[in-house]
Please model this.
Amino acid sequence: MRVPVVHQQGRRRRARYARLLWNGAEVVVTLGVVLLLLVAHQLWWTNRQAREGAERKVHALEREWEGEGEDEGDTGAGAGGGASAAARSGRGSDSGSGDGRPGTGSRAQPRSQPRWDQAYAVLTIPRLGLRVPVAEGVSKSGVLNKGYVGHYPDTAQPGRVGNFALAGHRNTHGEPFRYLDRLRRGDRVVVETRAAVYTYAVDRTLPRTSAGDGGTIRAIPRSTVRPAYGYTEPAHYLTLTTCTPQYTSKYRLVVWGKLRSVRPR
Model:
């Protein structure tokens, strides 16, 4: 009679393989969950946080400006008060030319250079349903990741001759410029400050250029990569820049506008 032989070594080997396979599967599942959480954080949570923060900042700026307007109105209640209030706020009567062109009055100009990372204006684009704060600088942590639009340092302020150039995220962190490619010639872009409301009209679009194309934000904007796009004469320009294609940062999309009117607050 034969005695059955149990191959213990083979069983132990198969058990080790099974454990390795199980552990590997656990690692893959864990990595998948972590990856999904990271994607959800980037595409949903950062947008929610940034949009809520940007909306609160817009309301804060509006309340601040309204409060200043009420204070000036109270001061102007007495004899000669209106003139003195206008003088204190730098508001003259010649802020507009009467024909929709930018005026030369001091009221149309910002009072002082904004502090770094300070939100000091509100950008509204009706076609996109967009209303976000504008802050000085284009740093990610201090400006763009808050859902704000950032003003390029050393470019003009709103209402001044030159190029008021702005940057914003296209994806994540509020993605204010996600649909920038939907703008068409003639679309309104409104910039509000404590001093005035500036209305620009979209004029031209550069669908794609390199990330280092600094010519697009010069005082007279003109692409150094695609010279057919841009301008040759001084004017009151607005430049909006963001990444393209979506979910990449390889290229830049550029939209240019020109100032059409200035309305003192």
